[in-house]
Amino acid sequence: MNITYEEAFAELKDIVNSLESSETKIDELETKLRRAETLIEFCKIKLQDVEVNLEDLLNKLSEEQQEE
To answer: For the whole model, what pTM was predicted?
Structure first.
């Protein structure tokens, strides 16, 4: 998927708003739900990656402080 987290999240919000306002036709429902599922998984992976990178950075900073 070649989009940013922010773009994926915005699209997901649009899908949710569409579903909540009953704008979605029954024929489009499955397509939107599958797209939402894909976007949720994408966002989840992005957040997990950021979490791992942040933990690594914090560990490195902690190690550097201990060495001083």
So the answer is: 0.79
